[in-house]
Write a structure and sequence with these properties.
about 325 residues; Rossmann fold; 6-stranded parallel β-sheet; 5-stranded parallel β-sheet; 10 helices; globular
Length: about 325
């Protein structure tokens, strides 16, 4: 088989419920529903998968999706397995495999996974996840990032900016705590400063509306417990919109107690530097950090960071290093 051929296998979160194969009908129904409604239309795992395919094809690779027949005809050729964990149920292909991105939220879901000699690498998308998986998967746990398309997210800095701060609300859990204890205090402070504020909430917008908000916004306030990559804030960075991020410092998923008795260090902005903006831990720290952020606003260069650290070419190169190693 041509060395430029990449065999990828992907399953999203829609599974059969009533009869075998009804997941395909559910996918069709979901596409029809989203055609008439606003809101986020794909899962994070789907975003990763599609960006991986785009990165690879952009570098000249021939990507085949879910071609089980071709993989069985060439059992020596590597495969990549991505998406939701049910794709691993009864996995029978003999090919050497690169697992991820996606699959498991914690290594204790499948602690013996990498003992299978077929599985050569397990991809995670940020350093804090790598620290969590390494005790179980060792040096087979490797890092990868999805690429950000700078053409799709152009530089908005030269445009007229009627919005001072775009609040991006991705608070997923304990909203009864964080709405009054975080969201409302920071919102009140911004409005007391006389700043022009817009608000968007995760899953309640479409990409066209978000892109328009970035075109009109001087900065973004990103409120999220933690991220494993964080495409939305990185799209803001690519648009040259500096970001002020709530970064509490820990993994706050309610499911964490199933796996970890102690707090797990994490971050909401796993790809970030002083070029991109600032971070604050809680509402008590917000006002001081915001003043620093606002005074330096025109000096940040977030788009340069994305071009250097999150390119499509770099994403494809990273993935293909692991893919080539799997064949050895």
């Amino acid at each position: 088989m041509n060395e430029k051929t990449v065999l990828l296998f992907f399953e999203d979160h829609v599974t059969d419920r009533w009869v075998s194969g009804d997941r395909h009908l559910k996918r069709l129904a979901r596409r029809v529903y989203h055609a008439f409604t606003r809101g986020q239309k794909v899962s994070g795992f789907q975003v990763w998968y599609h960006l991986l395919v785009r990165a690879l094809r952009g570098q000249g690779y021939d990507v085949r999706t879910n071609d089980y027949r071709l993989a069985r005809q060439h059992p020596e050729h590597p495969v990549g397995v991505t998406g939701y964990p049910h794709i691993m149920d009864g996995w029978s292909l003999p090919n050497p495999a690169v697992l991820g991105p996606g699959l498991f939220d914690h290594p204790r879901v499948a602690p013996g996974l990498m003992e299978d000699p077929r599985f050569r690498s397990y991809i995670v998308t940020c350093d804090w996840m790598k620290r969590m998986f390494e005790p179980y998967y060792g040096d087979r746990c490797v890092s990868w990032h999805a690429g950000i398309d700078l053409a799709e997210w152009p530089d908005t800095r030269p445009l007229e900016k009627p919005v001072d701060v775009l609040i991006y609300d991705k608070i997923r859990w304990n909203r009864d705590r964080y709405e009054p204890g975080l969201l409302e205090p920071v919102r009140r402070h911004l409005e007391s400063r006389g700043l022009r504020v817009e608000y968007v909430r995760y899953r309640f917008y479409d990409h066209a509306a978000y892109r328009d908000l970035l075109r009109r916004s001087r900065s973004m306030l990103f409120l999220c417990e933690h991220e494993t990559q964080g495409m939305a804030y990185q799209e803001a960075l690519a648009s040259n919109v500096p970001v002020l991020a709530w970064d509490n410092g820990f993994w706050l998923d309610p499911e964490r107690h199933r796996f970890e008795p102690e707090p797990v260090p994490a971050t909401s902005v796993p790809y970030f530097s002083d070029e991109c903006g600032e971070r604050f831990r809680d509402a008590g720290e917000f006002e001081e950090v915001f003043e620093r952020f606002w005074s330096r606003l025109d000096g940040y260069e977030p788009r340069a960071y994305v071009a250097r650290e999150l390119s499509f070419a770099g994403s494809a190169e990273q993935y293909m290093k692991y893919y080539a190693q799997a064949a050895r």
